[in-house]
Amino acid sequence: MPEAIISALFVFVLASFAGFEVINKVPPTLHTPLMSGANAISGIALLGAIIVAGDRDWSVTVILGLIAVVFSTINVVGGFLVTDRMLQMFKKKEVKA
């Protein structure tokens, strides 16, 4: 059991460093498409959290799944709202005569 926790923590730390490096190298013009992709990935995480939380017996995994559902939903909805607001900034404004 401790080996599994150590290896999972090792993978998490490596993924965090790799994600940080990748995000820092992205030019500002590509942030909106990448945010849309990240929102789609968060939606997949939301489905996984719903599956985990859907068990009939209450346990630690079900409670963590419910917490994951709440946070993932906030992330998906907030991400799409921010992306939509960013895209609204690029629309041409109508000129009234």
**What kind of assembly state do the chains in view correspond to?**
single chain
Quantity of strands, as a count: 0
The largest sheet is: none
* Helix-residue proportion: over 70%
> Rounded to an integer, what's the Rg over CA atoms?
19 Å
In sequence order, what are the helices and strands, one letter per element?
Answer: HHH
Helix-and-strand structural type: mainly alpha
Distance between the termini: 72 Å
User: What would you call the shape?
Assistant: flat
What share of the residues does DSSP label as strand, in percent?
under 5%
Mean pLDDT: 78
Poorly predicted regions: none
Count of individual helical segments:
3
Explain this structure to me?
- Helix content is 79%, strand content 0%.
- Helix 2 runs antiparallel to helix 3.
- It is flat, with a radius of gyration of 19 Å.
- The longest helix is centred in the last third of the chain and has 31 residues.
- It contains 3 helices and no strands.
- It starts with a helix and ends in a 7-residue tail after the last helix.
- The chain has a domain of 61 residues.
- The chain is an all-alpha fold and 97 residues long.
- The model has no long low-confidence stretch (mean pLDDT 78).
Features of the shown structure:
97 residues, mainly alpha, 3 helices
Give me a quick take on this structure.
The protein is mainly α and 97 residues long. 79% of the residues lie in helices and 0% in strands.
Secondary structure elements and pairings:
Blueprint lengths: L1 H23 L6 H23 L6 H31 L7
